[in-house]
Amino acid sequence: QVQLVESGGGLVQPGGSLRLSCAASGSILRVNTMGWYRQVPGKQRESVATITSGGSTNYAASVKGRFTISRDNAKNTVYLQMNSLLPEDTAVYYCNAAVRATMNRYEYDYWGQGTQVTVSS
Predict the structure, then answer these.
(1) DSSP, residue by residue, 20-61
(2) Which of 10, 25, 29, 45 could make an SS bond with 100 (beta carbons 3.0 to 4.6 A apart)?
(3) What is the CA radius of gyration of the chain?
(4) Considering the chain, what percentage of its residues have pLDDT values greater than 90?
C-alpha cells in the first residue's frame, strides 16, 4: 500500500559527509511527520531527526549542528544531510513516515528498509 525506499548510505571517513534520501510511494493521501532513526546491534532504535509537514524539526542532541533534515512535499521525500560524521554515527539508518493512505481510515507509521552508514578510517 505504502512503501518507503531509502538510498545514500555507504562508507565514509570521519569528518566526511553523506546525504540520505527516502521516498514514499503508493496510494497516499497525505504524508505527515517524517523522520530518520538509527540502530546499532544490541541497542534500541533511536530517533535522529524528525520533520513535520509544515517544516518544524527536532534533532537528537548528539547530531545537532551536524545533521540537517529536510523534505520535498511534492515528491513525498525526506532527506538527511550528515556532515562532520563521527565513528559513533555508524548504524543502520531507517526512514519513518506517518501516512494517511487511500484505503486506510487512520494514519499509520511506515518504515524504510534501512541503509547502512559506516564511518571509519
Answers:
(1) EEEEEEESEEEEEEEEEEEE-TTS--EEEEEE-TT--EEE-T
(2) 29
(3) 14
(4) 94
- Could you tell me whether strands 77-82 and 18-26 are parallel, antiparallel, or unpaired per DSSP bridges? antiparallel
Phi, psi of 71 (to 5 degrees): -150, 155
26 in Cβ contact with 6 (< 8 Å): no
- Give the pLDDT band of residue 1 (cuts 50, 70, 90): confident
- pLDDT of 105: 85
Q: How do 57-59 and 67-72 pair as beta strands?
A: unpaired
SS3 of residue 91 by DSSP: strand
Distance CA 20, CA 15 (A): 16
- Residue 36's closest CA among 77, 74, 73? 77
Q: How far is CA 48 from the centre of its chain?
A: 8
